[in-house]
Amino acid sequence: MTPETTALTSKVSSGSPYQLDQPQTLKASTALLKRIRSENDRKEAASATKSLIRTEDNSDEKDSSDAEPIWLVLTTKRNIVDQRRLKPGKIPLPHPLNTFSTTTICLITCDPQRQVKDVLAHPSFPTSLASRITKVVGISKLKARYQPFESKRQLLDEHDIFLADARIITMLPKILGKTFYKGSKKPVPVSLEPYRESNAEGKRVVPKPTTEKSKPMAPPLQVAKEIEKTLSCALVHLSPSNNVSVRVGLSSFTPQQIAHNVAAVVDGLAAKFIPKGWRNVRGVHVKGPNTMALPIWLADELWVDEADVLEDAEAKEIKAVGMKGGAKRNSRPLDKAVENDDGKGGKRERSTDVAKEERKKRKRVDQDQGLSKQIKERREKLREQMKADREDMRGTIEAVTVK
């Protein structure tokens, strides 16, 4: 008797099928963390060194230096964007990743940088956050001091997170170059402008700066709030492809924390970044740096709209229109007199032209039938391929859980 098998991913029993199943997400998160920690234990036993990654869910360890990142991999049926976006998107997380006190932050600001330093040194600014901002550099000083490649590389290695004033974020790719923008430390925009106020005409405008050389700067509490808000978000880096990866957790997190972050990121991606939302989502997986991707959600169809796969009648109609246009361009009156090759000026037999038209008509019918057959075979092939993929990966989560 063959053993019973379970589906690779489960869908919610009621409501729209285009939503995550929380038990499935929690199951994949638990299996992934178990795999990462077992691999870490194996390496620890082989090297006889102490591991800094916590092995219990109730650990209070707050150092993220050795914790491995957990990635959410979302694939779509069509490309998400047409061109690469250097400005990352932000999605709030219920369990932020950058709350560790050892994380160092570099803040790039517009000139003069003294304004921002005065804000950070203000008594009302939280000291816990100010201690993490280890460097404040203005845009002019960034251009002057960090032109060589070595200096940019050194600046990149000295800090964990780079924040930049939203007013100058578009100027940084040309200044920092590929040293910063080819990795995961791209500067993240943060708003340092004060909130807009209503003027006498009822329009909301930015308050004027106190001096001519200064820029409008938000008060200390507002700056701290904007920085904390940015640090608590997951960053979304989009490129012209059908795949996006977002860091949603660390190996020091619990499975419940990762499941909550996954749900928040998937909902944010479908609502704000992916065209046509859930209809364009093909699959959702979670993975570690050196692990295989565990599936959470897989689409039943490989197309976004039903119009993407033509029915037999629609295919025949489109093919007939195309063939009719081509025949119209290449046709000529049957009774038009033309000269023979011998130059005697005689007229062709009309029966010959009628026979040619009959042959063309039969050829068009054969082409229509062949096209309909190809479309039908393609649809069946896509469904069989989807079914085969599910069968091949069916035991993935169960095998990892058993190990």
Question: Which regions are unreliable across 5 or more consecutive residues at pLDDT < 50?
Answer: 1-6, 53-63, 332-348
Question: What do the pLDDT scores average to?
Answer: 78
Task: Give the SSE string.
Answer: HEEEHHEHHEHHEEEHEEHEEHHH
**Structural class designation:** alpha/beta
E-strand count:
12
CA radius of gyration: 31 Å
Quaternary state of the chains: single chain
- Gross morphology is globular
Number of helices: 12
Content of β-strand: 5-15%
How would you characterize this protein structure?
The chain has helices at residues 22-47, 114-120, 127-130, 139-145, 149-158, 172-176, 178-181, 220-231, 255-273, 312-330, 350-392, 396-402; strands at 69-76, 89-92, 105-109, 133-138, 161-165, 188-190, 197-198, 204-205, 233-236, 243-250, 281-287, 294-298. It has 403 residues and is an alpha/beta fold. The chain has a four-stranded antiparallel β-sheet. Strands 4-3-5-6 form a four-stranded parallel β-sheet. A hairpin with a 5-residue loop joins strand 7 and strand 8 (204-205). Residues 1-6, 53-63 and 332-348 have low confidence and may be disordered.
Task: Tag the structure with descriptive keywords.
single chain; 403 residues; alpha/beta; 4-stranded antiparallel sheet; disordered N terminus
Reconstruct the topology from this structure.
Layout (H helix, E strand, L loop, with lengths): L21 H26 L21 E8 L12 E4 L12 E5 L4 H7 L6 H4 L2 E6 H7 L3 H10 L2 E5 L6 H5 L1 H4 L6 E3 L6 E2 L5 E2 L14 H12 L1 E4 L6 E8 L4 H19 L7 E7 L6 E5 L13 H19 L19 H43 L3 H7 L1
Parallel strand pairs: 3-4, 3-5, 5-6
Antiparallel strand pairs: 1-10, 1-11, 2-9, 7-8, 11-12
Helix pairs in contact: 1-9, 1-12, 10-11
